[in-house]
């Protein structure tokens, strides 16, 4: 059990709540504290019976894990109900790869998301190896403030300049620091984009409409974090490694 969990448990259980929790926790373990309990007694009792806190922390972890599993099952049900056309919709995502491909990869991501960046090398390598046999949908889903929204708007606008979206999107995702205006424009230039056209297209209300549609789809699926993947119709929340991505695309 980590110190972080102990600290979280102690912070969450205070005053009367701790007293009640100790009584029920002790009862479950067959150890009963003296009654009544005041703050000092609770503190002393926990020091003498640390197994109570350990048991409570373990059960809390189990409960949270169960709740996460249930939430993921609910998201999977929503993904299945929505169907593939919801993801491979050019009004929502940048779609590339053969339309008749047997494998498909969808990603909801934010350019300033550290977990998206951690996963990016895996996704980039997979894309380069499978861009001719896998259907991809890249969903710009900014959730980390105005810089993320601006980067997403630039990425969506870049879709109007032929096949430069991937180079531009990957360049921003490969950055180490925050994607501010200067970084975004430098990456756009490096990707071969017409900067004057890009900045003009970013002002088009249709760009904001695309981002709004991505948020609406995420809300429909109860997706509230990045990265979130849908691989061959199966949802995967959080970072993904090469082995998992390969396994999911082979299903």
Task: Write a concise keyword list for the protein shown above.
251 residues, alpha+beta, Glutaredoxin, five-stranded mixed sheet, 11 helices, 59% helix, disordered N terminus
Distance between the termini: 35 Å
Instruction: Point out poorly predicted stretches.
Output: 1-17
Number of helices: 11
In round numbers, the mean pLDDT is: 86
Based on CA inertia axes, which overall geometry fits? globular
**Class of secondary structure makeup:** alpha+beta
What portion of the residues fall into strands of 2 or more residues?
Answer: 5-15%
Number of domains: 2
Q: Mind telling me which CATH architecture of the largest domain this is?
A: 3-Layer(aba) Sandwich
Q: In this structure, how is the largest beta sheet organized?
A: 5 strands, mixed
CATH-assigned homologous superfamily of the largest domain: Glutaredoxin
**CATH structural fold name of the largest domain:** Glutaredoxin
What is the level 1 CATH name of the largest domain?
Alpha Beta
Number of strands: 5
State the helical fraction. Answer: 55-70%
* Strand order of the biggest β-sheet: 1-3-2-4-5
* Radius of gyration computed on alpha carbons: 24 Å
Helix and strand string, N-terminal first? HHHHEEHEHHHHHEEH
Task: Kindly describe this structure.
The chain has 251 residues and is of the alpha+beta class. The chain has two domains: 3-68, no CATH class; 84-249, 3-Layer(aba) Sandwich (Glutaredoxin). The chain is 59% helix and 10% strand. A hairpin with a 2-residue loop joins strand 4 and strand 5. Helix 3 crosses helix 4 (50-82), helix 6 (146-158) runs antiparallel to helix 7 and helix 6 packs across helix 10. The two termini are 35 Å apart. The model is unreliable at 1-17 (pLDDT under 50).
């Amino acid at each position: 059990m980590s110190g972080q969990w102990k600290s979280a448990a102690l912070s969450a259980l205070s005053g009367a709540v701790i007293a009640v929790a100790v009584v029920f926790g002790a009862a479950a373990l067959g150890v009963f504290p003296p009654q009544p309990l005041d703050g000092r007694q609770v503190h002393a009792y926990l020091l003498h019976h640390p197994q109570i806190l350990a048991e409570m922390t373990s059960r809390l972890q189990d409960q949270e894990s169960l709740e996460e599993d249930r939430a993921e099952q609910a998201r999977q049900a929503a993904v299945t109900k929505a169907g593939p056309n919801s993801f491979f919709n050019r009004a929502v995502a940048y779609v590339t790869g053969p339309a008749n491909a047997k494998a498909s990869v969808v990603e909801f991501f934010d350019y300033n998301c550290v977990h998206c960046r951690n996963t990016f090398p895996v996704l980039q390598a997979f894309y380069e190896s499978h861009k001719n046999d896998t259907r991809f949908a890249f969903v710009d889903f900014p959730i980390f403030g105005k810089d993320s929204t601006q980067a997403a708007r630039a990425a969506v606008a870049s879709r109007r300049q032929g096949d430069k979206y991937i180079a531009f999107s990957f360049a921003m995702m490969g950055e180490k620091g925050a994607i501010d205006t200067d970084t975004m424009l430098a990456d756009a230039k490096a990707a071969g984009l017409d900067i004057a056209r890009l900045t003009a297209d970013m002002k088009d209300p249709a760009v904001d409409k695309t981002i709004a549609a991505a948020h609406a789809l995420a809300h429909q699926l109860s997706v509230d974090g990045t990265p979130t993947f849908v691989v061959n119709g199966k949802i995967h929340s959080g970072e993904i490694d090469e082995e998992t991505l390969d396994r999911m695309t082979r299903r």
